[in-house]
Design brief:
CATH architecture of the largest domain: Alpha-Beta Barrel
Shape: globular
Number of strands: 6
Helix content: 40-55%
CATH class of the largest domain: Alpha Beta
Number of domains: 2
Strand order of the largest sheet: 1-2-3-4-5-6
Radius of gyration: 18 Å
Structural class: alpha/beta
């Protein structure tokens, strides 16, 4: 329920991603690219060619509150909504401007890198920090994407640059207006569970309890929270690329949930 294509910071296109999912035996898949819905039409079309394979359209919004980054997944949204598409265009422009600022900082630090290299790596996708990191690796300036983030690109490091961020409460309302289901992605990465109750009060409908980087204790804590507040429990690998690429270690299907209850939940929602 949490995968990325080349439309954001993944490697595979939607067709190859779904074929990969079918090959390893998954019964369904959600594409949740960062701040874009560009792969959803292809995902829907490809999934229809595979009998009994369930495709769930989604998106992952990057938001921020109290200096904490909060990622919200929107499932089953109307990806053709004009207001949504206008917002996503604004976010794309913001990412491009941010990339330019970060590349300029890296050049000042002595890296042999330019925006054209980064855009080439991003291809048709929205330029993001992972594309900058890959360009840094290609230039020989760092050993890995992780090194690039740890020492240069993450918050507090010399090449970091902030960008336009959405408010999570407003995004929850947006997802609901689009007739979608709002889910908090990888809550353990927030390092601040105190924010979750506020998001629930704002209308949050689900929580990604199962995530590769969650400890067993974190998973159990979020399951208890979901039970207490009657939230939908989801899980996903946050897949970006196949193994041995050096890009995100979690392989597709590594962290999944039973398809039956999830599909029934969305079928019931559509029939209301």
């Amino acid at each position: 329920m949490h995968t990325h294509t080349h439309a954001s910071d993944g490697v595979l296109n939607a067709t190859k991603l779904i074929e990969y999912a079918v090959k390893i035996g998954l019964g369904g898949l959600a594409i949740t690219d960062h701040d874009t819905v560009d792969s959803l039409a292809e995902g829907k079309k490809t999934s229809k060619a595979h009998k009994d394979f369930w495709f769930l359209p989604g998106i992952e919004f990057s938001t921020e509150i109290n200096n904490v980054e909060v990622h919200l997944l929107g499932y089953g949204i109307d990806e053709t909504d004009k207001a949504l598409l206008n917002l996503l265009t604004k976010l794309k422009e913001s990412r491009s401007l941010r990339a330019l600022k970060m590349v300029n900082k890296l050049v000042d630090l002595g890296f042999q890198i330019d925006l054209e290299q980064v855009e080439k790596i991003a291809g048709e996708g929205i330029v993001g920090r992972v594309h900058i990191a890959r360009a840094m690796v290609n230039s020989g300036g760092v050993h890995s994407v992780q090194d690039a983030f740890e020492h240069y690109l993450k918050l507090g490091q010399p090449a970091y640059a902030p960008r336009f961020k959405l408010d999570p409460n407003e995004v929850i309302l947006l997802i609901h207006r689009l007739r979608g289901v709002s889910v908090l992605a990888h809550p353990g990465l927030m390092n601040d569970d105190s924010l979750i109750v506020g998001l629930i009060d704002a209308g949050l409908m689900g929580i990604e309890a199962y995530y590769p980087n969650h400890t067993d204790e974190e998973t159990q804590r979020y399951l208890r929270l979901a039970h207490k507040h009657q939230l939908l429990v989801t899980g996903g690998s946050d897949f970006h690329a196949p193994p041995n690429t050096g890009i995100r270690a979690s392989d597709i299907g590594q962290c999944s949930v039973p398809i039956g209850p999830i599909r029934q939940y969305f079928d019931n929602k559509q029939n209301k």
